[in-house]
Backbone:
């Protein structure tokens, strides 16, 4: 099912562009140019998420956010030309799920919207594929070559953290924080041990990893595609 | 310009204060001179009255009625204190006075009548005025104090003058700051407005260019052109962001949200974010951290990341892919030095002396991006050093946290 996104912006050209970007990505969209229209669309269109401008002709996005949330708790992302810290912190402080500053790249908008929807609607697949390896998130196991290998709690948390940011570098500090909820101090070597064991479970050749790569001095990256 | 105006205003206020002080001082001196000249206030000097009273053998002849106003009186005491002559003497006053009486009324009052005395060969002439008409006070002061009086007066005057000037300086400074704040707010409002108005059209340009860049039905040449539009839009976006922030820092309108930062983790995250953003594709970004732990830093992570990003972006923009980039840190004499180097050739070790630095305040750092770096360092109580030559190098010297 395609998510329904309501775009509230007083600039028709921008609204149209965002609508195209979202439509191409498979979302159903509706648009509103003012607070009044937004409240109407909110009732008739029943969106799953709202992209909300801050400055609107008949009010402001911050107030509208409160009105929408009173009716229904749904994800709201601000899409604003106001880049001051105060505006950003105010928006996020009111409970917005994200605050995107104009101008933005379409890809950035899609990624951030997707991340919010995934988090709010728990859109998590039961299984994922990493080359020849299938990860079963529900059971906490990996399947490779016809066999099932269980993951320890730490390996599972590590793989999940890397999977969520796949394609990007995750620093050793962020991984330690995810695994031990604390700073890096003293855990670096233990982390390396967990990484090595995880590679043994997901990599065809752990000595020459193709998916879980080390980025020297920074951290690790889980490749989307196998490194040739 | 600002300093000159401030100086002019300070001189104006100081001049006014000096004028007020001088006029007040001269006024006081004139008043004292005019009103305390040997009893002038008593309408006629007692010596002149005395001259109009002459002995006639049997009594006294008095011709000085005109010198005495209607309500004044006079009497002459002989050497034994007896009244030997009087003119309009109040009835309640006795006709004989002891030495003690004379000593008392000479200094103070005679039965509440203010009196003046004049010693004559034949006795003491006493001239009195109505009760309550004259205030008398006996002043005595030791000579040393009297000699010091001018210095005391001068000291008090200078103290008062200093106080007035100090207050005037504070008032002028406050006034100028208020004025500056109004101008800053106007400037900030204008730049904010322009920046706000640019952002929406730029979002359209950037968004459509990015879509065209990946449109499969466009020939590669057109896709490259769209990519160039998208990339240059990003440059404009960065410029607008930098312009806004540099103005806010310049006008002291950007609050610092300080947090305790562990430099190693912070630099790793900054480098990872930079690489994840895809801005350094083809560049080899290395992290150079010492083996020993670095001291913590109390800083605004957003601003500091912005400064390092600007430096890394500057390296990427002015070099070709394949060039090494390096982000590092070291502790040096109570300071934490965060540095970025990049460009053709091997990244050299940190320079031993600050001699090749271009300037510490960023005034000669070309472009808003580098100026912003210097401003961010200054806002944290540190400074930025831009080193000339190849490869490019910039160091942010920031005070390390004491704890």
Residues:
């Amino acid at each position: 099912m395609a998510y329904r996104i309501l775009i509230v912006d007083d600039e028709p050209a921008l609204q149209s562009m965002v609508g195209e970007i979202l439509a191409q990505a498979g979302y159903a969209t509706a648009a509103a140019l003012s607070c009044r229209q937004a409240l109407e669309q909110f009732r008739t269109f029943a969106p799953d998420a709202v992209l909300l401008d801050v400055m609107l002709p008949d009010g402001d996005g911050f107030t509208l956010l409160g009105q929408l949330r009173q009716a229904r708790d749904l994800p709201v992302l601000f899409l604003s030309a106001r880049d001051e810290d105060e505006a950003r912190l105010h928006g996020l402080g009111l409970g917005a799920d994200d605050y995107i500053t104009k101008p933005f790249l379409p890809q950035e908008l899609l990624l951030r919207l997707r991340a919010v929807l995934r988090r709010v609607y728990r859109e998590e697949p039961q299984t994922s594929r990493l080359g020849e390896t299938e990860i079963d998130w529900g059971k906490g196991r990996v399947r490779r070559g016809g066999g099932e290998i269980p993951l320890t709690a730490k390996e599972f948390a590590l793989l999940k953290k890397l999977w969520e940011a796949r394609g990007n570098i995750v620093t050793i500090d962020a991984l330690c924080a995810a695994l031990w909820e604390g700073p890096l101090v003293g855990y670096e070597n233990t982390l390396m041990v967990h990484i090595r064991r995880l590679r043994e479970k997901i990599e065809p050749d752990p000595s020459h990893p193709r998916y879980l790569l080390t980025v020297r001095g920074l951290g690790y990256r889980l490749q989307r595609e196998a490194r040739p | 310009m600002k300093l000159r105006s401030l100086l002019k205003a300070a001189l104006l206020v100081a001049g006014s204060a000096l004028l007020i002080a001088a006029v007040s001082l001269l006024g006081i001196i004139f008043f004292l001179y005019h009103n305390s000249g040997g009893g002038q206030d008593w309408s006629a000097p007692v010596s002149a009255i005395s001259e109009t009273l002459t002995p006639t053998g049997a009594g006294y002849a008095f011709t000085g009625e005109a010198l005495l106003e209607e309500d004044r009186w006079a009497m002459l005491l002989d050497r034994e204190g007896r009244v030997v002559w009087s003119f309009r003497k109040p009835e309640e006053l006795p006709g004989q006075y002891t030495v003690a009486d004379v000593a008392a009324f000479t200094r103070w009052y005679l039965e509440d009548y203010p009196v003046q005395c004049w010693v004559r060969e034949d006795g003491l002439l006493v001239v009195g005025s109505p009760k309550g008409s004259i205030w008398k006070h006996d002043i005595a002061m030791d000579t040393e104090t009297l000699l010091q009086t001018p210095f005391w007066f001068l000291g008090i005057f200078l103290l008062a003058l200093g106080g007035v000037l100090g207050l005037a300086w504070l008032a002028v400074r406050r006034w100028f700051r208020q004025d500056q704040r109004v101008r800053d707010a106007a400037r900030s409002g204008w730049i904010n407005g322009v920046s706000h108005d640019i952002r929406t059209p730029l979002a359209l340009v950037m968004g459509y260019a990015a879509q065209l860049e990946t449109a499969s039905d466009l020939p590669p040449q057109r896709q490259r052109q769209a990519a160039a539009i998208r990339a240059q839009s990003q440059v404009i976006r960065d410029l607008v962001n930098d312009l806004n922030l540099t103005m806010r820092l310049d006008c002291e309108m950007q609050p610092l949200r300080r947090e305790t930062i562990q430099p190693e983790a912070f630099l790793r995250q900054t480098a990872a974010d930079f690489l994840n953003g895809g801005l350094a594709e083809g560049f080899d970004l290395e992290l150079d951290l010492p083996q020993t732990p670095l001291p913590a830093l109390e800083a605004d992570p957003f601003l500091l990341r912005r400064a390092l990003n600007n430096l890394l972006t500057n390296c990427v923009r002015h070099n070709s892919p394949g060039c090494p980039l390096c982000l590092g840190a070291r502790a040096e004499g109570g300071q934490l030095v965060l540095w970025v180097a990049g460009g053709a050739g091997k990244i050299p070790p940190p320079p031993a002396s600050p001699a090749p630095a271009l300037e510490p305040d960023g005034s000669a750092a070309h472009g808003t991006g580098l100026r912003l770096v210097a401003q961010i360092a200054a806002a944290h109580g540190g400074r930025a050093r831009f080193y000339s030559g190849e490869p490019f190098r910039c160091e942010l010297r920031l005070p390390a946290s004491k704890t």
